[in-house]
Structure prediction request, 396 residues.
Amino acid sequence: MTVYLDNAATSFPKPARVYERLREYLERYGGCPGRGGYRMAKEAEAVVADTRALLAELFSVQDPERIVFTLNATDALNMAIKGTVMPGDHVVTTVLEHNSVSRPLNRLERKGLIQVTRVGVSPEGRVDPEDIRHALTARTTLVAVIHGSNVTGALQPVEAIGPLVRQHGAWFLVDASQTAGAVPIDVERAGIDLLAFPGHKALLGLPGTGGLYVGPRVRLAPWREGGTGVLSELPLQPEMLPYALEAGSPNTLGLAGLRESLQFILQYGMSWIRTHELALTQRLLDGVNTDGRFKVYGPADSAHRVAVISLNLPGCPPEAVAERLDRAAGIAVRAGLHCAPGAHQALGTFPRGTVRISPGYFTTEEEIDACLRALQDLADDQWHSHDQPHEALLRA
Ligand SMILES: Cc1ncc(COP(=O)(O)O)c(C=O)c1O
Prediction:
């Protein structure tokens, strides 16, 4: 049995009713939405419309048509960045961003098309909204900020950043890859113009699902052009959302799973889910902090976190820790840079990275305790395997 603690990569398992719904969908429906008047097509159309409406409810979006489905968060972030930024623009972002934000920006910057300012973080890995304010210039059109770090779990103060970005007249893009489904998000209250999210992490849906909320102030250039099933007489991609940004047959099976997982989340309530995940995170933090031999990164207080913990055992490479947890105790955690090299440069953990442990909705206290025991065993073995105890261990 695997103890799965890599929910920051993708959540596992999914709620049982998601599996049931997928099977039912494959066996009974499976038509193509918006492309036929027969019942199977209408059922598929309802899946797409319901999923949009549920996401709108979750993010307090007034018009569900402003939610556009994508393949994953990367797809949504590329769509947002490349659809808004123009030559000569200035973009403000942070050192914490995932490669799905930093790589598109880096490329545009290296081509000499845009200028980018990367705001730093506190030792706990949090951005100060004042630093964002100071980075804004007359040419700033976009501010792109990660909501929850996929390296340290640190939550960023997007509610404080949004209003100052809006006041400046720029667009605010939030990468909610680690928070959508885990932390309440109200796009209006936080002044978010573009919200990118995956369906397969804390929203408990399938890989191959994700989305982008496009606020009323933003006009995005088309991303894919092609069939929409409606307005087919037009020679160009319709300007109306969601068709302006959705073309081709959607991942209806994935959306059927996402509809079910969203209903699950809304039924149990996000505050319950967050309380559960924070309790597990705090248990893990307390365990490793009490042990004292591990270096733990990110906010000390779990209230400023999502359920993501990065740590290192001094003297033991992160990949060796992850491999040992898997081999000795069947515990699945992730080691390395987690696709966010800038975050590791800020933390001082570049280029080896960290061991990332990310509990999820279905993780139990027993699993956290098993992980703690395995970490302690590993630290004990490391101690005994040295004739001379490692310097770092002595200092701990
Ligand atoms: C913060 C962050 N942004 C973006 C992504 C990319 O998400 P996806 O795999 O859905 O494209 C991830 C995935 O780990 C992430 O953690």
Residues 387-396 have pLDDT under 50 and may be disordered. Residues 98 and 340 are 5 Å apart (CA to CA).
